[in-house]
Amino acid sequence: MSRAVAHRGPDDAGVMTWPESADRSQTAFTHRRLSIIDLSSAGRQPMTTRNGRFTIVFNGEIYNYRALRRQLQKEGVRFGTDTDTEVLLCLYAQRGARSLESLQGMFTFAVRDNETGEVFAARDRLGIKPLYYYAGEGGFLFASEIRALLVSGLIPRVIDPVSLSSYLSFGAVQEPRTIIQDVRTLPPAHCLSVDAKGRINEVTRYWHLPQDKFNGARIEAIAETRRRLEESVELHLVADVPLGAFLSGGIDSCSIVSLMTRRSNQQVETFTVCFDEHEFSERELARQVAEKLGTRHTEIVLSEQDLLASLPQALAAIDQPTIDGINTWVVARATRAAGVTVALSGLGGDELFGGYPSFRRASRVQRFAAPISLLNAGTRRQVANLAMRLMGDSLRSQKAAAAIAAGGDLLSSYASMRGLFSKTTRQALLNSRHHNGCVVERDKDYNIPDETLALIGNGQTNGDVFNRISCYELSLYTANMLLRDTDAMSMAHALEVRVPLLDHKLLEWVYGLPGSMKIGRHPKTLLIEALGKDLPAEVLGQKKMGFALPFERWLRTALKPFVAEALEDARGVARAGLNPIAVADVRNRFGVGARSTSWSRVWGLAVLVDWCRRHKVEVAV
Length: 621
Fold this sequence. Notes:
Layout: E1 12-18, E2 27-33, E3 47-48, E4 54-62, H1 65-74, H2 84-95, E5 105-113, E6 119-123, E7 132-136, E8 139-143, H3 146-150, H4 161-170, E9 183-185, E10 190-194, E11 200-205, H5 218-235, E12 243-246, H6 251-263, E13 269-275, H7 283-293, E14 296-302, H8 304-317, H9 326-337, E15 342-344, H10 349-353, H11 357-369, H12 377-391, H13 395-406, H14 410-418, H15 423-429, H16 432-435, H17 450-455, H18 465-491, E16 496-498, H19 504-511, H20 525-531, H21 551-554, H22 560-567, H23 570-575, H24 580-591, H25 599-614
Parallel strand pairs: 12-13, 12-15, 13-14, 15-16
Antiparallel strand pairs: 1-2, 3-4, 4-5, 5-6, 6-10, 7-8, 7-9, 10-11
Helix pairs in contact: 1-2, 5-6, 5-19, 5-20, 9-18, 11-14, 11-18, 12-13, 13-14, 14-18, 22-25, 24-25
């Protein structure tokens, strides 16, 4: 299991085992270290308290560890290292689960009480760092990647049918489920305890998105947002290794880099992915921003041929099937090759400050659907079918019809905008011979597992439309795709990616503001106003492009053989739980340029089949 995640921590490794107890149970902790703070061997994990009572394994960074260390020293705690790991360990030894309230950072960790044999594990508030676990006859296993659990030999390599449907709905499995049956993620902002026999005692949530609303003046909101942005970026610069930043032509990454240049005592290194396809490349804009901010800038030029040559490695790095992540793998490889160990990213800005089209579209859908919501479900479906016939079979008409059928339900409208395959197509793709009706689709078009709905309050979050969409983006899209893929694809190169815009103190403040203070004539109005003249003028007014590869074109050229090989493998398609005839239909529709089938649908199926073959995973027969 340790070797399976060696890429995450190439600098050091440690293992600790506890002998067989009276009930014949055994325990082992193992850790792979990427040295960021206190590079000496004193930071090796597993790490045990001076009195031998507690032992920890920890993944992530505690950005406020210096302040916590000073506080603990006043309480008489002595330290033997300069690591945040020891601070976290001693804090837990002093306060137990209450220690989570004091932590500012990204983390998953597990602590064993060596007197009782019990284990306590926790995950950060936004789910920036992953923790997967399995509780079964073989005991309790946990790891930072699913591949480590699979190689244990204690877990059946079987696809979870509910998760498969969830993947087809959104292009990523929704937490706390995973693609593997009986493997779960510890959800963001949760902790769990396990007894000495490996049985889970309880899983508890320790933090929620705030519901209090700000009633002060706009100028005060802007000033406090600025202060928290500065504080977050400054904390995220804590490291004993070289740092850099991902820089696109967008407002989020430019905001981070701008604040970094003000706070860093050395020249900031920035990295941008560029393409020959100019409509996808932000090369010129990123170059202008880098020159204005005075960064040492690296342009990573990626061609079709480059991607094709790297594809086997990139696909091997995927820890769960996903339609995203290849772009992060590419930029992370180049950033690490430049000697940088830590990179800051603007991830989270769109979700928090309202950069996605979903924020505006949802409001329009709500107004449009208000009269339709008065109709019964059967009549709404008839109206939706009529809209499809009038608008034609396109992705846009499919999403509009789903919103109409939902009758203005905000979560349904959001899910239809974020959806991959419609309910009808999902049902065709799922191989009924294997599923035998065990995937129960809802009346609504989306398919979000009940456990996932529970994490977001069954979709009934408090607040205005803006903040509810922000909640959905953070809880569904960000947690289940962006953060998961960023972690797996960056750590494949032993690169740590930090996300200052998802610092929980910044998030609590901005999320607690009314939506009217965050939305204006342009997306991310509050962020722009908070940064003022520090934000380069070049990025203002630019149409949002996003960090995307030109897959639409490449899937018709250089990547076409990969897709053909995966999706023409009828046995592989069936083992992945898919209907080969329906898969061929999706591929053919894309091939002839049908408006109803985008590149992401074909790519998503190919990645799923490839991942299942690579990890020898299949549906239960």
